[in-house]
Amino acid sequence: MPNWASGYIQVKGKPKDVENFCKLFIFEEDEGNKKGKYFARSFVHQSWKDFKKEHLGGSEVGFNVDFAWSCWSCMFEGYPNDKEGCVTLEWAIKKYNVDVTIETEEEGVGFEEVIITKDKKPIYTSENMPLYKCYKCGNEQQIPTSREYDLSNVDCYECEEYGFVDELTELIKEKVKMIEEEKNETNI
Ligand SMILES: [Zn+2]
Predict the structure, then answer these.
(1) Of 128, 160, 177, which residue sits at a domain end?
(2) Which of 27, 114, 140, 143 satisfies CB 3.0 to 4.6 Å to 48 for a cystine?
(3) Which domain holds residue 136?
């Protein structure tokens, strides 16, 4: 079993081009027998029929894709030796004249990828997920950037507590907010 990079992709273009681009992913019924050109090991967990109904028809779509290992290994390297039909993101962007952004999170190894399109070419960046220390047990854990805004809901793998917010700091913040609110009330 590979590690999975869970991705969110947005595609913009003419509706027919967007549709043809999306068809390159592996849908439920394609698993193990995808025909024609496609993105290697890039899975949309839906049937093509449902996907079409839910997402297609407009000039812009956004949906989830799971990449085996990383978006890089699936859409940039494209597994050239795997099967003949595997294409790269760069190829597909040019072919269908679409604008693509992708964000992924890989929590096993702890990295995040961001891909944008510039001048019909995909620009790739990858970074390690930010590292946090649990206030309760000292465990260090990588937390996706997308969850940083709400650390109070992230649980620690070691002690299983919501240990990534400092309770004292939170308490002070709350008090300050209360005092400000009281002040505002007396001003009125
Ligand atoms: Zn902990």
Answers:
(1) 128
(2) 27
(3) 132-187
Ligand 1 centroid to 148 CA: how many Å?
Answer: 16
Single out the residue in 128, 146, 175 at which a domain terminates. 128
- 82 shares its domain with 173: no
Q: How far does the centroid of ligand 1 lie from the alpha carbon of residue 153, in Å?
A: 13
- Tens digits of residue pLDDT in 83-112: 678 899 999 999 999 999 999 999 889 999
- 9-39 tens-digit pLDDT: 999 999 999 999 999 999 999 988 888 899 9
Residue 82 has pLDDT above 80, yes or no: no
- Residues sharing a CB contact under 8 Å with residue 160, sequence separation 6 or more, in sequence order: none
Q: Specify whether 97 is located in the same domain as 181.
A: no
pTM, to two decimals: 0.82
Residues 108 and 62 in one domain: yes
Identify the bridge partners of residue 142 per DSSP, sorted by sequence position. 131
For residue 134, report the distance from its CA to the centre of ligand 1, in Å. Answer: 5
Same domain, 50 and 123: yes
